[in-house]
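Lab notes, practical 5.
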Amino acid sequence: MNIEMIKPENLVYTKTKLMTDNALSYCPGCGHGTAHRIIMEVIDEMGIQEDTIGIAPVGCSVLAYEFMNIDMQEASHGRAPALATAVKRLWPDKYVFSYQGDGDLAAIGTAETIHACNRGENIVMIFINNGIYGMTGGQMAPTTLPNMKTATSPYGRDVKEMGHPLKMTELIAQLPGTYYVTRQAVHKPANVRKTKKAIRKAFELSKENVGVCFIEIVSNCNSGWKMRPNEANIWMEDNMFPFFPLGDIKVDGQLITK
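Output from the prediction step:
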């Protein structure tokens, strides 16, 4: 065969160079790996690798440093918004984002989250909500659903004794310092595309000094939920999504009325 007659393959996808070659250490089926990838794809496609600084605290999110080939800084548990604020104010021309779980952002770091959003810091906040403390043993989190079983609510969350789940995204959307607030997911290709589009929009807006752009990603924790990955995704659709509905909540500084 004439080698010159062989046409090159149509390359439809290649891994972004902003993901390291380290093997992902997350549990099989976890949404963190997909979230990492699309964040890095956005930064790569925008050509802002040298101008982006990520902040990740303790929890499953702390592993981000192993996989994201950008400048990263670790924060104490819950303090990522405070550290992101400091970085952005020192380097106002940089793209600064925090990457946090629900136990971190909605419990240990509630004050930091609320006040950064209320001040309207020009940062992007990415919030992974799986309704549980994943890394530390599957304890009940502020986002744990009513009657949901965890290591510290083995008979299910009793709202009379343990309080109601916290809808952090709806809460911070009420604050005047937030400009773009949305809730998405990464368990199916269509959802991945929507989430990536939201992340791109948030990074683009962060250069306009309009305030906080906040993206919640509802994900699973099949290990903490004691389910197989596919079962966890189905359970998430049936239980998490009705309580944490997907879609934009605040766009261009205006709450979306449904």
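Observations recorded by the TA: The chain has one domain: 26-255. DSSP finds nine helices and ten strands in the chain.
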